[in-house]
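quick one, 104 residues, struct below
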Amino acid sequence: MQSISWSEITVIIGIISGLTAIIVSISSMLSKREQKVSAMSEIRTELRTISGNVNDIKTDMKELKTTVSYHAERLALVEASTKSAHKRIDRLEKLPENKEDLII
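---
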């Protein structure tokens, strides 16, 4: 039987160390890749949520514009009615207080 020399043992240990380093490196790369994929999935989910919220806000803004437009129309009608009422009140104030003072 031949005995294994120290140089052969050193070469075998070097090969095993090299293979172990390659395996660990590949494993680390795959782990980082999975982490990146997971992070990207979370980012996509958050973006979808934000997009949905923005769409909801747009819808709310359209409804709010419609409501403000309706209130603006109503306000214009109330202002016209108030102006008319003030004119009638002014005419009533100009009337004499005593009925006897009225000329018929």
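Residues 6-94 form the longest helix (89 residues).
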